[in-house]
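Researcher: I'm comparing several assemblies side by side, and this is the next one on my list. It has 685 residues spread over two chains. Same procedure as the others: predict the full complex and return the structure.
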Amino acid sequence: MFIFQIIDNFTNPAPGGIWPSSFTIEHWRFLWETPKTGESYIWTVTFNTFIFASTTAVMVTTLSMTSGYVLSRLDIPGRKIFLAGLIMLHAFPTISLIVAIFLTLQIMGLYNTLLGVILVKSALELPFGVWIMKGFYDTVPWEIEMAGIQDGASRFTVWRKLILPQVQPGIAALLIFSFLSGWSEFVLPLVLAPSSDVQVLSTYLSALILDDNKFDFNLFKSVGTFYAIPVIIIYIVFQKKLMNIYGGGTKG
Amino acid sequence: MNRINWFGLIFISPVLLMVFLFFLTPVVMTAFFSFTNMSTSTGIKGGEYLINQETIKEIKKYNIQKGTIEKLENAGYLIDEEGLKIVSKKYKEALSNEINSLYFGEKFSNRKDLERALKKLKKNKIKKTRDRKEIAEIFKESIINERFNSKSIFEENLIKLEIDQNDRDIIIKESYTGWSWTNNNFKLIYSLPSSYKFAFYTVIYVFFTLTFNVVFGLFLAISTFYLPSKTASTFRTIWFLPRILPPVLYVLMWKWFTWDTGFISQMSTYFGASPKNWMMDSPIHAWTVIVLINGFVGASFGMILFSSAIKAIPSSMLYASEVDGANRWQQIWNIIIPQLRWPIMFTTAYQTLSLLTSFEYILLATNGGPGRSTEVWALAAYHTALQNYAGNLQYGLGATYALVLVIIGIIASLFYLKFFNFKDLVTKPRIEG
């Protein structure tokens, strides 16, 4: 069973039946064919997905970069509460809030917009990001900062010139991680932005699967592979960096 | 000193804002919505006041005064602009003008009076009685099917109709189309047998998936520990794929794998079994697949945690045990497993919480089917509030389902906070100190 699962992973890209008999690119026609009315064009969808994932990633990373530093190094009022809240939010199952988020967005008028999904996704990802960045800041030795302050630099300069270069691996990892997580997100776009002009690849694929009119596993798999290629590439290239987060992030 | 604090606050405020807007607000909102009867038909903003035939049926059930319904249905006849326009369109403009000059703004309490008045017309006599009747009908005033935006305007109109206080209140209550406060959701969930079923399914789901996660994660961590490091890391990469792959795609693979023309069916036909859908064939099949789907994703999580914990075991302990003649099995059982107690506990706690509330994979794989046999609590919340076949989305009821999970989540994360070594986290920063 386990071996089959691996085989399953690897046979996916091969088009044409379980035992590939002939080579064809027919299943990849979705890439250049113009869609019928009511369907969305794959490149628009890909573009949406890219915008969604990258904006989320940049937002999460920048915001975590600043507030992670604050929580790690600065003595601000209510720091204890922030930290306690952070751990709680970190463990909190965000998906149970989906009903309320849906209604809140409707009231705010952000329902069915890409912006709404981006904001929600970033907010839900933030506790995790801040947590990770705080962890990275914690490993930077105090002496560096002390030296900077002694020499008369302001806290902001210290942070920008001395500390940020030290946590660069963390920033990179978080950026990649949140990009991947945005790229794979399914439930949020499904619920919060169902209309076809803000569709992302995950909802596009699932809509394709649910569409009874054209049931074609090979097509699904081709779209799926197209969808997964960036993920696999990013994963293989940045594997080491990402493992930092997957392993360390949840350990606290 | 002060400046530094400002700097810190500015740095942290965007996060606070975001978290507040999309994290804390939804928590409060879930509770808020769960006490309402919001649904697609009531809308989520305010409602209007509207009396239609349905409302009248409801009103009749109350103990109201005899004339009230008639007053609502028949509010007299008024010569007004709107009616005149219709008359000039349907009949003659001259007729409309004459009625206008003679009776504009006048009110008649019943049709006979109005008809009598219409008989008095001089220039444009209405010859047929039926026409007179019809023209009179045009000027009929009625509150039915008229929409009112605010309660006060609606009530004023009712007062004009001389409906007494008691009946007025009943009518106002029944004709409101928006949502209102209620605790029926809780009663409903408590009384529905299906909600116990959902809870039961959730327990099954969490229990089996968790067991699979931990046991299989352990197995992977220990077995890769004994492999040469290069092979081990390749294995780990492969086992990490389910976590890396987008859920939609990952589940798609499983669907293909278990489909009636899919992998298992094709394989089993070689052995003479008839092809079937291995996922949706029966609840048992569905549950097995769901546990496996979630299990593999979770196992990679356990694997990473456990392997880093195993690496942290001092190798002298392992060497010592080997010198003492322990075999692999004894080594695992007596040294590695006891050392892993803490990570195992952590994984269990963490995964329980996330499994309780996750429905993504189940939604994608079986969507709660076959029948509703894989409908866990979180999926039920989703289905009631956000997607169902009936089309009437019950936001309020769904929020109540979600509220149960939110409360569990809050309790569990408080517990978490205790679990963590919190003092370590709040060591004072040194520069200001």
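Model: For your comparison table: Chain B touches chain A through 93 residues (CB under 8 Å).
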